[in-house]
Amino acid sequence: MYLNITNRCTNDCEFCIRQQAPGVGGYNLWLEEEPTTKEIIEAIGDPTGYKEVVFCGYGEPLMRLQVVIDVAKHLKKTYPNVPVRVNTNGQANMIYGEDVTPQLEGNIDVISISLNAENAEKYSEICHPEYGEDAFFSILEFTRKCKSHIPRVIVTVVDIPGIDIAKCKRLAEELGVEFRLRSLDKR
Ligand code: SF4
After folding, report:
1. Ligand 1: nearest atom to the Cα of 59
2. Is the model's pLDDT at 169 over the cut of 50?
3. Residue 38 clears pLDDT 70, i.e. is over it
4. Burial of 9 (0-12, 13-18, 19+ CB in 10 A)
5. Separation between Cα atoms, residue 5 and residue 59, nearest integer Å
6. What is the mean pLDDT of the segment spanning 23-40?
7. Domains of the chain as residue ranges with CATH
């Protein structure tokens, strides 16, 4: 089950589906208004039939950190057997100016962080982060910190031309996290 809770993001990636269409699979994903915690919980209902519940795009879910935590807390308390994942651009510590990863502990089972490039220069070229090249280094630091608080940490790279996949994979190894290559149409 995918939760689309915001269209805001600190990146402007060239491959972002926000650039290409108002939605995927026939769903319009542009939010007129961001849903409240209560509305999200009501919309989820009983998720036990789903493999996992995923906070993901359109947009960067951790722009709404407190909402993610509150919804995830509810899910862990009510449906402890349903895994909760966050798909993120990994810039939350920059957005909030502090290390927010301890707040994810016990609430999030899997975090999937978009690394997208093997170095800061390339990352900036592709993702156009508000924070410039610092964003990339912050993502690396965020990834390391996540390992202390979240059972499963994955970095992902989109298979677009010009990205050195082997180097990205090595970076993931150095960070001590899983690596996943994803195709353009999957997040
Ligand atoms: S980080 Fe994700 S939501 Fe944000 S611009 Fe890039 S692809 Fe789009």
Report:
1. 3
2. yes
3. yes
4. buried
5. 8
6. 82
7. 2-182 (3.20.20.70)
**C-alpha distance from residue 93 to each of 19, 110, 145, 179 (Å):** 25, 17, 10, 21
Give dist(CA 35, CA 177) in Å, integer: 32
Question: Which residue among 60, 111, 130 is best mutated to probe the pocket of ligand 1, counting the most ligand atoms within 8 A of its Cβ?
Answer: 60
Quickly tell me which residue has 């997040």 as its tokens.
Answer: 187
Residues in the chain: 187
Report the distance separating Cα 69 and Cα 66, nearest Å. Answer: 5
pLDDT per residue as tens digits for the range 50-68: 999 999 978 999 999 999 9
Does ligand 1 have an atom closer than 6 angstroms to the CB of 12?
Answer: yes
CA 47 vs. chain centroid, Å, equals 20
Question: Which amino acid residue places its CA nearest to atom 8 of ligand 1?
Answer: 16
At 179 the pLDDT is 98
Report whether 29 contacts 22 (CB < 8 A). Answer: yes
